[in-house]
Automatic annotation (TrEMBL):
Assigned keywords, A-Z: Cell membrane, G-protein coupled receptor, Glycoprotein, Membrane, Receptor, Signal, Transducer, Transmembrane, Transmembrane helix
Compartments (UniProt record): Cell membrane
Regions that span the bilayer: 208-232, 244-265, 277-294
Protein's recorded name: Taste receptor, type 1, member 1
Start and end residues of each G-protein coupled receptors family 3 profile domain: 206-296
The keyword Glycoprotein is annotated on this UniProt entry: yes
Membrane topology: Multi-pass membrane protein
Amino acid sequence: MQRLSQQVWIGTEDWSVATLVSGIPGIHTIGTVLGISIKYAAIAGFETFESHVVSKLLRDTSNGMMDLRVDCLQNTDLYSMAVKNFSLDGYDMTSSYNVYKAVYAVAHALHQALGCDSGECQKIEVQPWQEVPPSICSPECPTGHRKLQTGQHKCCFDCLACPAHTFLNSTGSTWCQACELHQWSTEASNVCLDRTVLLLAWDAPLSLALLVLLALTLFMTLGSGVVFLLNLGTPVAKSAGGRTCLVMLLALTAAAASALCHFGLPSRPACLLKQPLFVFSFTVCLACVTVRSFQVGNSTIFQLHSHYELFY
């Protein structure tokens, strides 16, 4: 009995779900029972059809028009159901559904084998082995899509589009391949495209015009700075701000020089330098302007105070 309890039983739905079997004393000790049930689905229009046929048979029987000698199994069964007033609600549709599935499979297999999708079936001989329809859970994913398994069976999966900057040029894969650094791709792509490089070339007409303006700016700021440095101790230089004005000119020169990082092919040092250099230099320049403004403002206030003491 102990060996029996370790067995695994595979039973059909005829006895695995029967209350007569499950009610046997000690049945739970026989081991594990796996019951196989046939899937059932409603057949559209089937019950309506049989109800119509049964009603017609009842009318024909009452009028004496039913020929009991009809050698047709379907009519004979329906006639028996009609005369016994059998309700279709208690009729087991499982067997009918199995027949429906078989006819449905053969019909679609013939439809495909004869090429009826074009609107007219071909008149060719079809062998029995050609009528077997493909049995798949999920169709293959197109290129640019990867598989995502949705259950315990590998044949059942969803198709997910590869995200941007990835690609997949084959079917059946569960992951998308990343593009190279110099390439790009859109969503659901099966190939990566080379990036188009847009830059300010040194010899481009626009670049030459900008470089001329930049050279003039650097010449003016550097020239003014050199002149200011040579005459730093003079009264004119001191009244203009002295060292504060000199620092402001140097900051303007550095801010203008940061524009050189925008020309030619981008490089890591240029990309790291251009923004911080411009921001820092321009901030220093604005700070110098602010300091000089306070100095001029205080000097003006003191002069007004000496001339108009009554108003202060």
